[in-house]
Amino acid sequence: MKKxxxxxxxxxxxxxxxxxxxxxxxxxxxxKDVLSIGESFIYQIQIKGSDQASGFPEDEWSDxxxxxxxxxxxLGGQNNSSRQVSIINGRRKEIINTAYIISWSLTPLxxxxxxxxxxxxxxxxxxxxxxxxxxxxxxxEESENFELKxxxxxxxAFVGEPLLVTFTWYIGMxxxxxxxxxxxxxxxxxxxxxxxxxxxxxSNLIQFPVDGVTVMGEQGKGTFKGKTFTTxxxxxxxxxxxxxxxxxxxxxxxxxxxxxxxxxxxxxxSSFFSxxxxxxxxxxxxxxxxxxxxxxxxxxxxxxNFNGYIGELNIETSASxxxxxxxxxxxxxxKISGPKNIADWDAPDLNKQYELSANxxxxxxxxxxxxxxxxxxxxxTIRSLNDTVTQIPPLEIPYFDAEKGIYSIAxxxxxxxxxxxxSAVRMEGSDISNSNDMQQDIVLASNNGINFNYEDIDxxxxxxxxxxxxxxxxxxxxLIIFPLVFLVVLVLRLTKKRNYFNGKNNRKKxxxxxxxxxxxxxxxxxxxxxGAGGKINILFKKFMSSKISTGKEFVSExxxxxxxxxxxxxxxxxxxxxxxxxxxxxxxxxxxxxxxxDYKLQIESLIxxxxxxxxxxxxxx
Length: 621
Hints:
Blueprint: E1 14-15, E2 17-18, E3 25-30, E4 34-36, E5 41-48, H1 64-69, E6 70-79, E7 82-88, E8 91-97, E9 99-108, E10 112-116, E11 120-123, E12 126-129, E13 133-138, E14 146-152, E15 156-158, E16 163-171, E17 175-181, E18 190-194, E19 205-210, E20 213-224, E21 227-240, E22 244-248, E23 252-261, H2 270-273, E24 278-286, E25 290-295, E26 314-320, E27 323-325, E28 329-337, H3 354-359, E29 360-361, E30 370-372, E31 375-384, E32 391-392, E33 396-401, E34 406-411, E35 415-416, E36 418-420, H4 436-445, H5 467-470, H6 474-523, H7 532-548, H8 557-566, H9 575-588, H10 599-620
Parallel strand pairs: 4-13, 15-25, 27-36
Antiparallel strand pairs: 1-3, 2-12, 3-5, 5-9, 6-9, 7-8, 10-13, 11-12, 14-16, 16-21, 17-23, 18-21, 19-20, 20-21, 22-25, 23-24, 26-28, 28-31, 29-31, 30-31, 32-35, 33-34
Helix pairs in contact: 6-7, 6-10, 7-9, 7-10
């Protein structure tokens, strides 16, 4: 996320209209007013004379035309007040300047002259308005050192049909910072989901933000127009919600890339292991054009119980046990495979499986599914309602076959079972006989089924012993309760102590495992070990994630900053840790200019720096 800039161009500063004539002033400024589609910039409202403001929009601006032209990310507000103290001829003078700043990151989505509209704020009970600002947005220019390729697996689809959109960035220069903008993701006529996990090599994974959402890309090598590039690829599932012909806007990457190296080679590591500084320039990388035709689902032949499943699918069922009595629980397992978005599916409604619901009792809800490769597995407990049942009937799920353009039915196979009459249930105070016919009536009349079946007995014994009896013998009650309380307290204390030592040992184990892994990388270094930098990056981020317990596999700089702030620790005290984030990410993003010269020595130096940083972090927190 960009930080607040000192804006240089005085012509971009517009005084606001003060509606009530007080000393408070506001000014709206932009970082730059000529830029390319997809190139983000800072829009800022500066308030002089007050340190508070309210009523301003955040991500949702009311101007519909503005919303179509810009992607908006609210960066927050902050107090910018200052105090100056001077002593002249023994006299102390203090000047307090009260100020407040509100910032947004804006990204133009279309070309042409775009208008940032007037915004109204409430400051100390009065309303103030900014003046509109014009922005010139142009089509991004291409560069032979970068390419951005976006592909859809189909250019014609039906509403609800999952498609895969893939972004591949070809990198031919060493880069430092970049901003990835995908205007397509802002289209409310589509739903965007994470694609299924293909189990890539963790050392090749790269985490970065796209329009405020963190994505996980995979680094590799690729050829484009006869030239070899480093590639960064990620994918999303796209599900259209509204029919129509869509021209998908270009995605754009704004990137800072190394264009020269004063007094040094083009080796990536030189910027960190020598005193020379590279020279960088800003590039804009546009994607190719895409279009998509989305068709409505046909109404002809649509089944009454169609639940929106689109794409050829298959269902398999299994059950256990198969030899039961009336009312015994049977675990029914359903495995459904097919469409790409299978992980986002809800379980089929078994109450709409009419043959099944007529002969079996089923709870009203079903547990969430579990992903198994390209399938999702649901389990459900069912109970037979009578002893005439001979099978669990086939389950039928209607779906729309997008390839054939017709509705179809996916059907499982019937499962043969044997159901015997239930044993008599004896209840104290009841006059129910042990007739099996009466037992069947009890099962059929029950709303909740029978959880347990008991074998019939000839004599019902009265059970009278309980807490009520113990109250008649207080000594016995005391002999039972006091040891029990002592035992509970002892167990709780031992558990707490065990958890403490386990947690402490686990933390030490995490550091020791990191040291062991880094030592192994160092011992296996060779002239061609170009993947070592990526492995160190993944090990470092996994270690930091385990230390701050984010729940994520890889921690980000923002995660760490948030954690330190919550612990009342200063971010600046951990500069070496944050420096490593930059170094290791740059290694991951290294283009084809990365060389093998002195690679082993440089990686060893990097490993030493990682060990120094994590040991220092371990000691402080």
